[in-house]
């Protein structure tokens, strides 16, 4: 090709590129199933990821057990963040997780809460007469056989020798945030929730923390769901980044070290 024609062709390419700039990557929609105890933190994470990537995030919040069962039934989730490893184990055994995407993300603590601000602290141990404190009231807990917060709470009470006395007086809720609401509204005088939940509600006081050795470690694993496409991997990367870390720590979660 003569030099003049080559120069003209190159100039045409430049003019075409200027007239028709490259189209940015198309924004995609991501569906995240997350434990109810992550409600406040996920609002910040969702907004941050959307601003950083342009993708749209839909977060479904509920008890980890309910979310896992929905995923097992074929619900269109892209990412799952569970409040305990057990439900993630079940999905992994069923082949419902994308291989190599599971990661331990967060830790939490378990607390006894009382209705109203400024309630006096108590020492949580075998000598705590929780049944007497309840009086005619109820102890609000998430479902003790299904929801992680309820499972952890029951384990702690059993380890301390307190479960038998309070079991008939437990008001079970669908998830930990529902249990929190029972205490916040005064429908129950006491409840067992995560430390992060207690921080999120002005009308309750965390009056004691259950010793870590009384229950299994409270660990939040995250993973992409098998068959998930689009920005699932990018979202998991974002969860491990500094912006998400700041959002989780602001709500009282401990981020699992890399």
From TrEMBL:
Give a single Pfam family match: SBP_bac_11
Query: Which compartments does it reside in?
Result: Cell membrane
Recite the UniProt keywords alphabetically.
Cell membrane, Membrane, Metal-binding, Molybdenum, Signal, Transport, Tungsten
Recorded GO CC terms: outer membrane-bounded periplasmic space; plasma membrane
Question: Alphabetically, which GO biological process terms does the record hold?
Answer: molybdate ion transport
What's a Gene Ontology MF term here? metal ion binding
Residues involved in molybdate binding: 37, 64, 149, 176, 194
Q: What InterPro entries does this protein map onto?
A: ModA, ModA/WtpA
Question: Gene3D superfamilies attached here?
Answer: Periplasmic binding protein-like II (3.40.190.10)
Chief location category = membrane
Residues annotated as signal peptide: 1-27
Q: What does this protein do?
A: Involved in the transport of molybdenum into the cell. Part of the binding-protein-dependent transport system ModABCD.
Q: Which family does it belong to?
A: Belongs to the bacterial solute-binding protein ModA family.
Q: How does it assemble?
A: The complex is composed of two ATP-binding proteins (ModC), two transmembrane proteins (ModB) and a solute-binding protein (ModA).
List the PANTHER family.
Answer: MOLYBDATE-BINDING PERIPLASMIC PROTEIN, MOLYBDATE-BINDING PROTEIN MODA
Protein name, UniProt field: Molybdate-binding protein ModA
Organism per entry: Rhodosalinus sediminis
């Amino acid at each position: 090709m003569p030099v003049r024609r080559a120069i003209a062709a190159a100039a045409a390419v430049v003019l075409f590129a200027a007239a028709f700039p490259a189209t940015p990557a198309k924004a995609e929609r991501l569906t995240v199933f997350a434990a109810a105890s992550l409600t406040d933190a996920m609002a910040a994470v969702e907004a941050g990821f959307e601003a950083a990537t342009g993708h749209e995030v839909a977060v479904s919040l509920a008890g980890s057990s309910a979310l896992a069962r929905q995923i097992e039934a074929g619900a269109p989730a892209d990412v799952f963040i569970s409040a305990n490893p057990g439900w993630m184990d079940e999905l992994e055994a069923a082949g419902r997780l994308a291989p190599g995407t599971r990661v331990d993300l967060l830790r939490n603590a378990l607390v006894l809460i009382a209705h109203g601000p400024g309630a006096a602290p108590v020492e949580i141990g075998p000598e705590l007469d929780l049944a007497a404190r309840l009086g005619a009231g109820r102890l609000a807990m998430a479902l003790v056989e299904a929801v992680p917060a309820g499972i952890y709470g029951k384990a702690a009470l059993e380890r301390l020798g307190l479960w038998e006395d309070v079991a008939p007086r437990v008001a079970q809720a669908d998830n930990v945030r529902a249990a929190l609401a029972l205490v916040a509204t005064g429908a129950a005088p006491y409840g067992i929730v995560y430390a992060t939940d207690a921080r999120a509600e002005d009308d309750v006081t965390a009056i004691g923390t259950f010793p870590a050795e009384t229950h299994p470690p409270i660990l939040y694993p995250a993973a992409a769901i098998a068959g998930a496409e689009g920005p699932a991997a990018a979202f998991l990367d974002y969860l491990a980044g500094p912006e998400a870390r700041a959002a989780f720590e602001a709500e009282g979660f401990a981020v699992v070290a890399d």
